[in-house]
Amino acid sequence: MTTPTRTPALELTPVRVGWRGWAALAVLMLPVLLVSVDNTVLNFALPAISEALTPSGTALLWMIDIYPLILAGLLVAMGSLGDRIGRRKLLLVGSAGFGLVSVLAAFAPSIELLIGARAALGFFGAMLMPSTLSLIRSIFRDRGQRRLAIAIWASAFAAGSALGPIIGGILLEHLWWGSVFLLAVPVLLPLFALAPFLVPESRDPSPGKLDLVSIALSLVTMLPVVYGIKHLATEGWDAVGLAAIGLGLVAGALFVRRQRRLETPMLDLALFRQPAFSGAVVINLLSVIAFVGGLFFVSQHLQLVLGLSPLTAGFTLVPGLITMIIAGLLVVPVAARVRPSIVVPAALVLSAVGYGAIGLTGGAVDAAGITICFVLLGLGIGAAETVSNELILASAPVDKAGAASAVSETAYELGAVLGTATLGSILTASYRNAVLLPDGLTADQHSAAAETLGGAVHVAGELPSDAASALLESARHAFDSGVGLSAWLGCGLIVTAAIVALLAFRSVR
Known about the structure:
This protein is mostly helical and 509 residues long. The chain has 17 helices and no strands.
């Protein structure tokens, strides 16, 4: 007989917080809003960036991927660092660096410098997210209050995603693409003013030494694997892509081996022996791959295929993102009474239906159809992630909250990387193979139009009307053929997450 998952001993004598704890939660929502707004805004700025900086398809993907890639590689290290030096202190340092680099990114004159700025944002962003979730774990000891706090945390993430398209649409219709990065400044100023007074400091009372070798191994695991996936998707199966993935897997094996031998490892692998913890991490990973990959192609489809303005495209997705917020909050009382092995799979099935509907159209879906599909997607993922995140934190001792939170956030950010690396690369490869270019293009025009749909739209503006119409029709058809394929892949990922939930949570009461 399987033994039901037990909560840590600390949970047996919970201490409920008063108004100060909820005020601290409000302050901790600011960096969450910032990161989520940045993620959504950038997707809607892709057409403007493509036209202004004319990047290659690979460079455009790297501009998106480098931020979550660096962030994912450093999250566990930063989570452990926060446990050692203080989670609030790390949060404030990360916020300062994030704000400064955001200003630099706003004025980047080339795609190469923008990629570099995004990498720096990933470094400082790695200090933000584990700090917020681990501070919630240390502030809210009562499980009922913590479940609600995590639902609010997840809702703030979804709220930022909902606000991003609207704010970004307004900015992009009146200002240049770099204005979307300046949103960090007004969000971070209240954090610096209020956090020292409202957010209590917390740390691991018995921390080990910071292990630089483990940090290096975690980065060497992430970078080659994602590069290999991107390379295989765009260039086909060859020795370069396979060697990169092989290098990452070897580094990952060495990382795991080192953690098992260290007296105080950077990542406590014992956490993964709990089915509820490891299952929740996998569910988050698969869900975010599907969700972020969907945002990558839907935002471009709305603007470049359907011809909507950035603001109108943003409002098209808002109902789904609002649904995600509501679902995350309403699932709290349900999760207190119904087993997660029922709640999470049922929620994810709704998301799979939304993706499957896009796949059935072959990518040729109108704005109303996308709105309905994203409502279903948000309903399922919003409910499932509230439950899975609470299980991750409930499975870890409070003094290891930073490391546990970092694992949860690593799943999020690695999912964001793989979402654009897999679905985005498949979409790019499908576009390249299907697009037909008119005769008479210059070498630069041919290269730009063959790489991305945004490049084709830019080139079409330089051509006579007949040639421009032919190019746009071919490019949009080629893009939508990849959208249909990517949607079916997203549907498969969410179905897989539902199966994992059914198996991993079957003993969780």
